Amino acid sequence: MVFVVADNIVGPLGVNTDENFEQVIRGNSGIRLQDREDYGPAPFHGAMIPHELLQKAIRGLNLEDYTKFEQLVIVSVTEALSHTTIRLSDPRTGLIISTTKGNIELLEQQEEGVTPPREQLQPAATARKIAARLGAVNTPLVISSACISGLVAILTGQRLIASGQYDHVVVTGADVLTRFVLSGFQSFQAVSAIPCRPFDADRTGVSLGEAAATMILSKDPHNADIRLGAGAISNDANHISGPSRTGMELAAAMQLALSGSGLHPEDIGFVSAHGTATLYNDEMEAKALHHAGLAAVPVNSLKGYYGHTLGAAGLVEAIISVKAMKNGVILPTKGYETPGVSMPVNVSNTLRHQPSRHFLKTVSGFGGCNAAMIFSKK
């Protein structure tokens, strides 16, 4: 078995997991109207980390020579490790970094016509730089699989421990909301003009966000409350950016996660869905929940609190959901009011005090990729 022994989130709602969960419980969102001329001619809604909060997080760590992306990862890992005796200097401890864009911010920090050194943009090189700063002795593994990266990183860490390669794995992920990222999603006409409304009839698209998150995995159950169940990955190969129109492929990943954990739909306390608030994603997810026999299970999306944090999303949302399960609550889907999918699902829109022993986390991404994983109380 593999256990979750510590975690951290650094984002617009706080610099540790407790701060973040407290804000979510209160119904507060990190999404704000951003009036940034350097991001384009028009304001946009996004969940960006306030400058003063980032400075609070990095204070005393001497990270002035690191990019924002690198700072976020280092801060998150450092804080998570502080709750354990696990060290990256131990050859039996691995490091996984998930991201979709890495140091893409460097492109926007150069004079026009100047390109930063290629190695600074390569995720593997960035990961090695971060690993060196953290004192890691093992070469870090980079997971960059679109928006499922964070959950795939957790699943990969679990498998590395189960195979005997490591006793512990530090799984971390981050992405920064840059003009490059914003313009990319705007080119798909996928960015909402208002804070996102997952699964709602009036949803008009995604709100973007930025964050870093870390989950420390171990084969040692000491002081652990959560164990990892089975996980699975699928690809629907439907379109470079559009998801499956049937939801069958995500449903297959859900069913593999359930069966691999020895569970049935009725054992699941809630589903933490990807829930981006785009027309096609939420429709696909609703269909997948039906196909997997999970339509009656409470489902929520946390995008209304954090926006879409890309390579960090699977980690951020899994950590908040773990915290919710520990506290015996099912979180509401911020922004949801009116059912807006063709196959109705049980979207949670109020804070429910309801104990759970297991929850299912799902993610989907460009290229048709999907992943699902079970998290359980020990």
TrEMBL record:
Q: Does the keyword Ion transport apply?
A: no
Q: Where is the Ketosynthase family 3 (KS3) domain?
A: 1-377
InterPro entries in UniProt? Beta-ketoacyl_synthase, Ketoacyl_synth_C, Ketoacyl_synth_N, PKS_Beta-ketoAc_synthase_dom, Thiolase-like, Thiolase_acyl_enz_int_AS
The family classification in the record reads: Belongs to the thiolase-like superfamily. Beta-ketoacyl-ACP synthases family.
Task: Give yes or no: UniProt keyword Transferase.
Answer: yes
The UniProt entry's GO biological process terms, in alphabetical order, are: fatty acid biosynthetic process
Classification via SMART domains = PKS_KS
**Protein source organism:** Chitinophaga eiseniae
GO molecular function, one example? 3-oxoacyl-[acyl-carrier-protein] synthase activity
Q: Which PROSITE patterns match?
A: KS3_2, THIOLASE_1
Protein name in UniProt: 3-oxoacyl-[acyl-carrier-protein] synthase-1
Q: Which UniProt keywords apply?
A: Transferase
- A UniProt-annotated Pfam family: Ketoacyl-synt_C
